[in-house]
Design goal:
heterodimer, A: alpha+beta, Immunoglobulin-like, nine-stranded antiparallel beta sheet, 9 strands, B: Arc Repressor Mutant, subunit A, 8 helices
């Protein structure tokens, strides 16, 4: 007997009505029935998921782990993002809006002014004890790529804030520039830098200590989409 | 079982996961930070569902990742998937909490309002499916959310998203197969 089409079994698991042939076949074929039962369990479980099913642990947990595993005098890079919330409804609304608009994802070009094209953007979320948040946008202005950063709620400091591009595992980084007093700045991207290799935008709090390297104190971070 | 095809596609999340798993045993703290970033939501969310308490879930997450760091040399990426290995450790740390709780009451271990307690294995299934759903990309992610949560038929989804029927059907089959395979692969390690 001919097996059910796997695509049809998937639709049946989602609750669509089987054709008479498929219905009869499912009663008699163990292989197709097992597949159907497996998929039904997945569909049932997926439909029970809550908005907050998959949550990132609170940011202080990483600090506690890093402290526990750290060897003396090593500085540990913070994980790339602080909190992440999974919300299917919001995601559906956003994605449907995006699809209906005829634009898939944020990586496609969207002209803002005749000479400026936004090629990617990322939300910057606060890290650790900070409240700083905002957005980073990669723009092509007259053919040259620039990184625009706009943040609010920077902490009080005697130092200054620096913008960095980090590798996903924070193993290497590039200093992009110093954030101006207005907390909104745009920087030319260093030539030859691939955002695929350095997708993480990081804002660090630096002291005027003559040390050009990252202070290891980050106040906000976000990842540009691939 | 192959987790990803050998062709190097930039931005392929399966390939990125595989690379991360391959470098975990010998990598240093930056790799470990990336592993934590990628998989700590699975560990934390499983613990949160299993205990019903966010503080306990945080403690379990910390204990699980410290264990993972200390025993990383024993992880063999050719024998088991890293998320399955991490969830095995998580399950042990959850069991530690239960046995500790049976000996002496843990203060403040009452479930937080709104956090439903689920048996560990069910919790793991939920979290793996949620993770896979989140990683489907577009348009499969939207298609599956419409199928799961709005319970639209494939014909209604095709109309809503202005996609051919065949495309929607094939995304649905592939997405459900991915979830099924993910449960098989990561469960095998437990």
């Amino acid at each position: 007997m001919k097996h059910c089409d796997p695509e049809e079994i998937s639709l049946l698991a989602l609750g669509e009505t089987p054709s008479p042939d498929d219905a009869v076949h499912l009663l008699t074929c163990d292989e197709c029935r097992h597949r159907w039962e497996d998929l039904c369990r997945i569909v049932d479980t997926a439909r029970e998921l809550h908005d907050d099913e998959l949550l990132a642990p609170p940011p202080h947990i990483w600090a506690a782990i890093a402290e526990e595993i750290a060897e003396p005098s090593t500085v540990t890079a913070l994980p790339a993002r602080s909190a992440r919330r999974w919300a299917p409804w919001i995601a559906v609304a956003a994605a449907v809006g995006v699809l209906l608009g005829g634009v898939v994802g944020v990586a496609l070009t969207r002209p803002t002014t005749p000479a400026t094209t936004v090629v990617a953007s990322a939300a910057l979320d606060p890290l650790e004890d900070y409240a700083t948040s905002g957005a980073a946008t990669v723009e092509v202005v007259d053919g040259a790529e620039r990184l625009a950063v706009n943040v609010s709620d920077l902490p009080q400091t005697d130092g200054y804030f620096e913008v960095w591009l980090l590798a996903p595992d924070a193993s290497s980084m590039i200093a992009v520039g110093t954030l101006g007093a207005g907390s909104s700045s745009s920087f030319p991207l260093p030539p030859g830098v691939s955002l695929a290799d350095y997708p993480v935008v990081d804002i660090s709090l630096e002291a005027y200590d003559g040390d050009p390297t990252h202070s290891a104190i980050s106040v906000a971070r976000g990842t540009l989409p691939a | 079982m192959t987790m990803a095809d050998p062709v190097d596609r930039p931005g392929d999340p399966d390939l990125a996961d595989q690379r991360l798993a391959e470098s975990f045993a010998t990598g240093g703290e930056p790799t470990f930070a990336a592993v934590y970033e990628r998989w700590s939501p699975l560990v934390y969310s499983t613990a949160r569902r299993a205990t019903g308490n966010t503080d306990e879930a945080a403690d379990i997450t910390q204990a699980a990742f410290v264990s993972a760091w200390r025993s990383r040399a024993s992880f063999d990426p050719t024998r088991e998937p890293l998320p399955g290995w991490l969830l095995t450790i998580t399950r042990r740390r959850i069991a530690d909490r239960w046995s500790q709780r049976s000996r002496e009451p843990i203060p403040d271990d009452t479930p937080d309002p709104g956090v439903e307690i689920t048996p560990v294995d069910d919790a793991i299934d939920r979290i793996l499916i949620a993770d896979e759903l989140q990683r489907l990309g577009e348009p499969p992610g939207t298609i599956m959310r419409l199928a799961f949560y709005e319970q639209l038929t494939h014909a209604e989804i095709a109309e809503r998203l202005d996609l051919p029927l065949g495309t929607v059907k094939s995304h649905i089959r592939r997405s459900l197969d991915r979830m099924r395979r993910r449960l098989e692969v990561d469960r095998e390690a437990l």
